[in-house]
């Protein structure tokens, strides 16, 4: 009996402890301090793309710069309206208009555009910083951190802290007259298009 007990104690002394990573519920951002980075990388990678050389007869490819601001403490749905607002504007006009928008997201968009403008002149060989316009501007959803809020009678409520990302692409040159291309055709072109559609009509199973 004594030998058996000594054998059990000897086996227990040789065991290595196994630590299980138990994720507990936490109300702060320290829980994600050592997690893998999940920031968007595809959009900013367009700055490193190398294009083939162009022929002399081709239209010169305008220079552009992509920039992003990540983990903004703001709703991506609210930021979307401001991002759409500056599309198709020149950089100077966009900064001027955003200065009069009394919203928190307008400051984020304005700061991102100014950073992209400085980046274009510094790293992308843009000659004049005012010769830029907003070619792309949109927002994306970021991480959502869940917390708790104490209610009455010992109950708890869920709180969601939402973050978002903002993406902008500035292009060299003058902006288009109609960014969304919603201007209707002239009356004569509308009539010609209608006549062409009518002449293309065909009765099914006919010769």
Automatic annotation (TrEMBL):
Pfam families: Ribosomal_L22
Main location: mitochondrion
InterPro entries: Ribosomal_uL22, Ribosomal_uL22_bac/org-type, Ribosomal_uL22_sf
Protein localization: Mitochondrion
Origin: domain of life: Eukaryota
Gene3D superfamilies given in the database record: Ribosomal protein L22/L17 (3.90.470.10)
Statement: the UniProt record of this protein carries the keyword 4Fe-4S: no
An annotated Gene Ontology molecular function: structural constituent of ribosome
Any one GO cellular component localisation term in the record: mitochondrial large ribosomal subunit
Any GO BP: translation
Keywords: Mitochondrion, Ribonucleoprotein, Ribosomal protein, Transit peptide
Quaternary structure, from the entry: Component of the mitochondrial ribosome large subunit (39S) which comprises a 16S rRNA and about 50 distinct proteins.
UniProt xrefs under PANTHER family: CHLOROPLAST 50S RIBOSOMAL PROTEIN L22-RELATED, LARGE RIBOSOMAL SUBUNIT PROTEIN UL22M
Family, as annotated: Belongs to the universal ribosomal protein uL22 family.
Name used for this protein in its record: Large ribosomal subunit protein uL22m
Protein source organism: Leptidea sinapis
